[in-house]
Amino acid sequence: MRDETPDERADRNLVELLQGLRVAATGVQVLFAFLLTLPFSNGWNRVDFEGRWLFYAALVMAAIASICLIAPAFQHRVLFRAGLKEILVKRANRQGVAGGVALAVSMACSTALVVEVYLGTPPAALLAAGVALLSGWLWFVQPLVTRYRLRGEIDDL
User: Fold this and answer.
1) Can you give the residue ranges of every domain in the chain?
2) pLDDT tens by residue, 101-142
3) pTM score, two decimals?
4) Are 100 and 140 in contact (CB under 8 A)?
């Protein structure tokens, strides 16, 4: 246990959380930018009906991920010096998890879209499932299992 006051802990938690969200937000912004340009590229006419739905799902999920991962920084600005840092940390943590879920879905759909165009639906579905399972395991399940094993309980997200 650290020797820090509740205010110091909230400050540290917020700094650590915002730093982690910056890393994730950069990745989702690159993916989102790619998706925004895709319909204007030369190969777009090879994307079939199913591929276009994968594109729409990936695009919307990337937008949601961007919103969730950027929201804590803007809320921090709006709530600056309002004495609500602990609320901001809890809220930002939930937004970060929601953004991670949306990012995982967007990545799975984006991967499926590319594979579907070149190899067909079955390989695309398998690869998308693999991406979803791997990100789900590494980003959510494994840390929760570790948390449960080490603490014996799962605290509020």
Assistant:
1) 6-151
2) 999 999 999 999 999 999 999 999 999 999 999 999 999 999
3) 0.88
4) yes
